[in-house]
């Protein structure tokens, strides 16, 4: 997941399987949900810290990122 911090787009690298992508604010509210993409538009989100959850149906990874 890069760049971090970002002000416009997040890029996902290294995923070979189809992914479900969800982005949550620090209160746990889902703010973005998408599937099978390598580029996520986060321009509409307010500045702050978010958690991105990547799931391939078997395992999942949570990463934090900063929206400027």
Describe it.
There is one protein chain. With 68 residues, the protein is mostly beta strands. The protein has strands spanning 9-11, 20-25, 30-35, 39-41, 48-55, 60-67. Strand 5 (48-55) and strand 6 form a beta hairpin. The chain is globular, with a radius of gyration of 11 Å.
Strand and helix layout:
Blueprint: E1 9-11, E2 20-25, E3 30-35, E4 39-41, E5 48-55, E6 60-67
Antiparallel strand pairs: 1-4, 2-3, 2-5, 5-6
Strand order, biggest sheet? 3-2-5-6
Q: How many strands?
A: 6
Q: What's the tally of helices?
A: 0
Question: Tell me about the biggest sheet?
Answer: 4 strands, antiparallel
- The helix content is under 10%
Secondary structural class: mainly beta
Beta fraction: over 45%
Integer-rounded radius of gyration: 11 Å
Mean of residue pLDDT? Answer: 93
Whole-Å distance between the termini? 15 Å
Low-confidence spans: pLDDT under 50, at least 5 residues?
none
Write down the overall geometry. Answer: globular
User: Helix-strand pattern, N to C?
Assistant: EEEEEE
Short descriptors:
single chain; 68 residues; mainly beta; two-stranded antiparallel sheet
Short structural description:
The chain is mostly beta strands.
């Amino acid at each position: 997941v890069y760049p971090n911090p970002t002000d416009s787009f997040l890029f996902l690298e290294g995923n070979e399987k189809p992914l479900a992508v969800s982005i949550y604010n620090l209160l746990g509210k889902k703010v973005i949900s998408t599937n099978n993409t390598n580029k996520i538009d986060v321009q509409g989100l307010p500045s702050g810290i978010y958690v991105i959850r990547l799931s391939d149906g078997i395992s999942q990874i949570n990463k934090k990122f900063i929206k400027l």
